[in-house]
Amino acid sequence: MEKKGEAMTSEEKQEELFAKWISPEGVEFASPEAEKAYKERATRIKDAIQMKKLPDRVPLFVAPSFFPAYYAGITPQEAMYDYDKCCKAFKKFVMDFEPDGNLGAYVPGPGKFFEILDYKLYSWPGHGVAPEQSYQCNEGEYMTADEYDALIDDPSNFFSSTYLPRVFGALEGFKMLPALTGILEMYGVAINFIPFGLPPVQATYKALFDAGAEALKWMGAMGAFNAEITAAGFPLIASGYTKAPFDVIGDTLRGTRGIMVDMYRQPDKLLEAMDRLTPLMIKMGVSTAQMVGHPLIFMPLHKGADGFLSDEQFKKFYWPAFRKVMMGLIAEGIVPMLAAEGHWTTRLEIMSDLPKGKTLWMIDQSEMAKAKKTLGKVSCLFGNVPSDLLVVGTPQQVKDYVKNLIDTCAKGGGYIVSNGAFFDQAKPENVHAMVDAAMEFGAYK
Q1: CATH code: domain of residue 88
Q2: Total number of domains in the chain
């Protein structure tokens, strides 16, 4: 499909990425049946996203957090420290529930890696929370109110010399490093390298080497899982992730309190910082998607939800930069996969200002009927089976809920049955009921 001598349109770029995903190079499928099932599942998802024609049935996602670990009888701590057990648990989950798309086995993450670097932003199983529980974010002001200029001036240097040493205790030595942009000619070059001879800096690099080795070990296990589950006929539904600029600052730089205060005390600096981060977030998503040859890039959304911002604040601070990131991804043929966590009902009209068939939205607690009538006119939706229903409901209640979702959202296409939020604990029979209902009620006639 690649054009010679002229630029490809965004539609052509998207089709090229979808083609690479649907017919992946170098994959030795377990059987002709597995290859056929893989292509059917991936094509079904593509048709739902693009809203151009109806697939044979409503596609199905089952998007878990630590549920596969519990389901396989291991703890979240074991899933984070024993990569073989983690992959076996996620394989059992995919093979037993047979979703059209899966998220791989990335969710638990490498516990030893976090330990080596003394990660402070999160507490994880066996390291701040009980081995049987999921991880938790330790929100704080890891960027101070007077550091916007430093972030705007040089985001990369700010992250390496200021932010990372605050969230990784083992990277304290980075604070002592000079800005390498000052190394221009022979005169005085050696002075810039003196910090690399200091014990704290050398200890930081030793930790980096150890963490890098552990990251390679973890990624080796994840890559093997991806290859195995793909060969078995099950597509991965995301190649990487990026974020909305407001969430970059509000989630892990300034924190909720910090960014809320900044909207009143220094709104111009906040807006300027988001403008500076926007192209970086676009590049982050584009580079991953192009490297992997996969069109979907995941974007978790947090502080734009109902209750965090007024409508006026959402329109001024959250939406413009967020939309620019989405449009930047779309221009390169990438499908932003947005997780609208919590309630976004009051935002649905605003978020409908997008080109048709270019985005995929995970709907958590927003009103699905309204979502279908607004955002659902231009975007494929998936969700919103509630986590509490999966935990305490009955299989019949789950089936009834899914049938109502299909009746409400599936007409005309552009809908995928799924849970609405990443879940840990759930009754397996209820997850099976969600799957069964999608198969029973989701056929297009």
Answers
A1: 3.20.20.210
A2: 1
